[in-house]
User: Fold these one by one.
Assistant:
Number 1:
Amino acid sequence: MISAQHIKKTFGKLQVLDDISLEIHQAGIVAILGPNGSGKTTFLKILLGMVIPDAGEMYYQNQNISKSHLYRKFIGYLPQIARFPDNLTVSEIIGMIADVRNEPSDPERLVQLFGVGKFLDKKLGNLSGGTRQKVNIVLTFMFDTPVIVLDEPTAGLDPVALIKLKELIYQEKAKGKIILITSHIMSLVEELADEVVFLLEGSIYFQGTITELKSKTATEDLEHAIATILEP
Ligand SMILES: Nc1ncnc2c1ncn2[C@@H]1O[C@H](COP(=O)(O)OP(=O)(O)OP(=O)(O)O)[C@@H](O)[C@H]1O
């Protein structure tokens, strides 16, 4: 369903992605891991058509994404840092994103789930970081897209919201979706991910299950597996 073929990307002299090839065909949760600056967000933005690779091709459903942007309506995206005008209210941004995407949306269920109802008339600029993130989650999950890209989705969330987000991710997975996630919280990745892709120095250092990664590094949990890779 998603196929990256020999993707390369440099920013100035910095080679961020160097010949990355990756196939994701099955429904499930794939975690893109790697140290800060290893190119996780860049890779996801290439999939979303927001960054153009220097070389290589990205395919969605066997269609080269550079040929048409229509595939983007099949992807829900929670950016690492969402930037919306501070003077818009929560209900205004929900209405605006629904209008722009022009697809069926169901924000009410999510507004209720994350307790965002009491903030609907508040301006985004006056919300706490965690509440903003809850609004971003509503904006991402209110469309029924077969692919969901979550870049550091837990940022600022309290434990109650975190549990709800995990339940939501599981529900979406159960519908047969592909969910791509980045996170530095290894316990979350260990709990959620069916597969991990570990980026290091521009290449895919490892791709497989967490069990395989733990076995490869002779460690008992993901946190130590990653630490072993980074500081052998
Ligand atoms: N538009 C840009 N212009 C210049 N450099 C960029 C740009 N976007 C990303 N970079 C650089 O590319 C590298 C990879 O960035 P990216 O955001 O993809 O990393 P990441 O793995 O998502 O990092 P983190 O874990 O910190 O979120 C970084 O060194 C970053 O500074």
Note: The mean pLDDT is 95.
Number 2:
Amino acid sequence: MAASGSERVAVELCKGINGLDKVVLRDPRGSTAEVYLYGAHVTSWKNDHGEELLFVSSKAIFKPPKAIRGGIPICFPQFGSQGSLEQHGFARNRFWSIDTDPPPFPTNSKSFIDLILKPSEEDMQKWPNSYEFRLRVALGTGGDLMLTSRIRNTNADGKPFTFTFAYHTYFSVSDISEVRVECLETLDYLDNLQNKERFTEQGDALTFESEVDKIYLSTPTKIAILDHEKKRTFVLRKDGLPDAVVWNPWDKKAKTMADFGDDEYKHMLCVEAAVVEKPITLKPGEEWKGRLELSAVPSSYCSGQLDPQKVLQSS
Ligand SMILES: O=P(O)(O)OC[C@H]1O[C@@H](O)[C@H](O)[C@@H](O)[C@@H]1O
């Protein structure tokens, strides 16, 4: 039967900013997501009201070798600056391919795309390992955004390799000073602003009034980000990703970043599902899987009345 005029394509390949290839995913109820092949970078996730849920800087540079500022950069094979590679590794500024024949991977979604990254000769000079990195980006019914990474060691010489990783998600928030993050309180963290020293979080939910750059360790599989003004809660569910990085550059650092507006720190928060403290080691033939699921639900949150369990259960 021919598709009716109103029927929209669930997966569409088209051109984005600067002519870069991007894939648009559409859910029948109206949610959408956009993924650039440059970096396998999710740059947009909209709910069924067309509201953007991710932050992308108005100054983002959609041009190699700079990674796109905002959305969901993929940090691999190195998170941050600890290691011999460039900050956050190279996966976020490589051109990925569409994986037309991925190994079986069940899904309920009709709107998804499989991307793959393999090392170039130049990459092999920097990081002499052979791998296949498969990323599936899917929109679930109800508009949830799901990212699954499968990284396989394909070294022919029997060598294991070790990596760290993050989904460096930039959430769009109405006003950072009205935002709370639940489920990380009482946990240990490494503070990037204090030589990666280890501390224990003491307070209630996290709130924000200055620069923050912390790596929370052994975090629960669910984290909630409550946007009081928008009456919206983001729920982040993760698997295979024990750590969670929380980052906001605040005003001074923002001014030093060429691809970030001076006041944009007010409207974003990075909460990054990650593997940092205990890197992953894969022997040849072994595969690692890291999964992130994001949903945005209306929250009836009022200051001081939040029961995080209820928020998480209601989603
Ligand atoms: O500017 P980049 O390389 O995208 O990194 C942004 C930030 O990313 C965070 O994940 C790091 O913890 C910060 O230290 C860093 O400043």
Note: The chain is about 5% helix and 40% strand.
